[in-house]
Input
Amino acid sequence: MDSYETLRVEERAGVLRVVLDRPERHNSINDVMLDELGAVLDRAERGGPPIVALSGTGPVFCSGMDFADASRSEATSLADRGGAAFFGLLRRFTTVGRVVVSIVDGRVTGGGVGLVAASDLVYATERSSFGLPEALWGLLPCCVLPFLIRRVGYQPAHAMTLSTMPVPALRAERYHLVDEVVEDADPVLRRLAARLSKLDGHTVGDAKRYLGRMWPPPGDPERVATAEFARLVSSPAVQRRIANFANHQQMPWESR
Output
């Protein structure tokens, strides 16, 4: 049995259930989590069930980048590895030969929105909300936006980026960021697993590859996203805001 530092993983009833398990850090994303999520996808592709279901421990699904870890990293290291590794994980969500499902019960911010947007299906409770606060730090959701625009279209992504305001679950459903607002996703997962059991093992991967060819992203979204992330995160002002939050819990607008 594989062991994980940042996740709880269990295979049950045709579903590989993956729980982000850093509640003390609001399930924020660090290098370990990126590596472990990649390992889970490897496990799924080695003959795991057809569904990978992602959820979170506690009232926060995922709060995005772990600022405490980021504040300890060299800006160049964070810019070079962080953006590329995260973008690569989101891209893999969209290409892996399994149905990736996000089950959201609570708050989702920053990179957490990327995990949701890159998923094939999203189920959320009415308690859930989705926000992109990066602009408050002088950043942009560079790696999130290609996947968010792919899912919801340009204007909702544009509004979420500029306003930094959280979007409640029912509006997120209207945006198509959420496929269905449900109180309990388990019955939906059971029906989905039963349906997918009727498919040939290669069909999901074939469908995702073909559908990916139907979506025309900008010339090279990975290069554009990671280059802009690297530029922004290397800024001394951004580094100072991240350090102030990590060390003193000071929000970015409080240090101006």
